[in-house]
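INFO batch 0412 | record 1 of 1 | parsing
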Amino acid sequence: MSRNTFLFFICMVVSSSLTCTTNVFAEENKLVIPESTICADQELQLNGLGTRKKLFLKLYVASLYVQEKQDDAAKFLQMSQASCMRLNITSSKITAQKMVKAVRDGFDNATNGNTAPIEAEIGIFLDWLSQPITKGDVFEFAFVPHNTMQVSKNDTALGVIESKAFSSALFAIWLGDMPADKKLKSGLLGTSHTIQ
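INFO prediction complete | emitting tokens
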């Protein structure tokens, strides 16, 4: 059996409701990334994906799902369409404390240091991330126009934040002018694949 045939078979077994791909995947992390998915009751298509790396560590695989594909970050961050950011944790080195710090720094970068207008929302979000994180966890940040961000972990809802400004800042952590990882940003926008 060829590698692609095997991956397609696994994808179909995992979920017959998803449209799967055999050429977009994170083989080294044993992940199959579907070309479409249901997120917050929305049917979305894969816009792009990539691996967040730090030094030699592969921390997580991020995949961005949208209604209509978009390779312009500025237009995407206007938050005019339903979208979903999915993080598959692939390293045991990620702890809740490290995640909270990284996301806090990300909000600072995304807002040019002006987090005051959304500080309350950031506090709520970081509290959700403060629970123990283990390799294999899956986070989903689903934006439902025009103001709603639904947050879940391992298919369990953590809560909802009603703020378009917060939602834009959250996605700007990966897609803004000062992203967490420039190569990952390119991958999420579909201009390159950075899984390897």
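INFO post-check: Residues 1-23 have pLDDT under 50 and may be disordered.
INFO record closed
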